[in-house]
Amino acid sequence: MTREATWPLHELTMAAAWRRQVAAHAEKPYLHWLPDGRRWSYREADAAINRLANGLLAEGVSHGTHVALFAENSPEHLFAFCALGKIGAVAVPVNTACRGEVLRYYLDQSDATALLVSEDLADRIAALGPLPHLRRTVLLPSAGAACALPGIPCAALMQASDAPPDTAVKPSDLAMLAYTSGTTGPSKGCMHSQASSLIFGLSNAETHGHRADDVFYVCLPLFHMNALQTQSLCALLVGGSVALSSRFSVSQFWPEVRASGATITNLLGSMAAFLWAAPEAGGDRDNRLRMVSATPLPKFAEAFEQRFGLKLVSNYGLSDYAMATGFTTDAPAEKRGSAGRARDGIEIRIVDDDDAPLPAGQPGEILLRSNRAWGAAGGYWKMPAATLEATRNLWFHTGDRGILDTDGYLWFVDRKKDSIRRRGENISAYEVEQIVARHPAVAEAAAFAIPAETSEDEVAVAVILKPGSTLAEAELLAHCVANMTYFMVPRFIRFVAEFPRTPSQKVEKHRLKTAAAEDRSPFWDRVAAGIEVRR
Prior knowledge:
α3 (about 40-60) crosses α4 (about 75-85) and α8 packs across α9 (about 225-240). This protein has 16 helices and 26 strands. It has a domain at about 425-525: GMP Synthetase, Chain A, domain 3. It is an alpha/beta fold and about 525 residues long. Helices cover about 30% and strands about 25% of the residues. The chain is globular and about 65 Å long.
């Protein structure tokens, strides 16, 4: 049976997907909220989503309305995303670590006129001052939170009818703006249609063989496409179940996995390393997990599988475009460490700087192309020049470098674009520099990565002060904490007189990175100073 016969294009809308799966699995469990034990069957979840959708319609949120979702994990968060999809509104998930200027940028650039915000995050919105473009705010419940913002309680919207909303939505309609880290400039809103948003999860099921009897343990944040599309919506599309946690916790991970009966989960960045570093216990293999996606695949992958009694898989994909490859459980052992082979519907090409294809085994930029109707993101919101640059010559340019071997396995090499990878998050060096440079004492800043002690990178920034200005590292750090997402805040700070530059006066960051990797002693280290940056 072809993929089109399994999920034809006309059924790749939020409304059609829920209608089909409720008909097939009405009383089967869909969602288990682990913090308090509440559960919803497919029928009950669909009814809750319909009530929220109709409540939003009554408040003026309709087809094409851009709605920011600034919320912690909760059933209401997941239902709200589905409700927005059912009425054809455009969801704008915002990282809950955002604050200050970064948060304002997302709200402004996305053209959001409505906001769904967790009560315990409302103070971040209130601190921004007037937001004249926002016309309505809906407050999602948070345990014990004192709300600092006026708005419509989610519970009030849930009093609406549970009949399916009467809104026509097409697979090609814009469904969400998924913001990138802004690797070569300001963060970009990746435009995903109803179809491409669902195909993110559907291709995961097709690649890895997810089934109706799978229980997906979701501890990653729902503002990420990993938790939302590749897990929660993947579960919907295969008729599986979601066990939703509030967040990732090393101490709670295995107890929640066991209690929920989870068979599938995803790990990002250093999460696998944290679980591996925990003391071994006699019951390490006492779980039902059969498959864990770990990106990147850790060096200790085989030992991890033996210790916990499961299989590790890995993937390569971008919110900018689509899920591209999958390293599957049946891949040859010698291919471990690769990102696997191209997914159904995706073509991969490795090219040189002139976009000329390179032979197998030679490193170059990774280019992607989807041959599936509405199978990938449609460019960047209000950034036509960036869209044209990324999609030149009819291929999507990832900005990443890799190698395709003779068997079609993709091996990631490094990033061409100016990005820092820290604990599963891609951080824009450009955005860090722009915020640091807003301090009145700063003339110029250069942000770059320093290899961390455990895995991935730490953020470092070299700073040139304005003539006659003085500034302590802790003062600059406080400025960063007030205006950055917590994971962007630099760990290492160094004041310098000048930067190494090219003849065209561009900063030679590779020299800064190399010098810092060889000797960190000139840098002030906030960890050594005993300063902890919280969410």
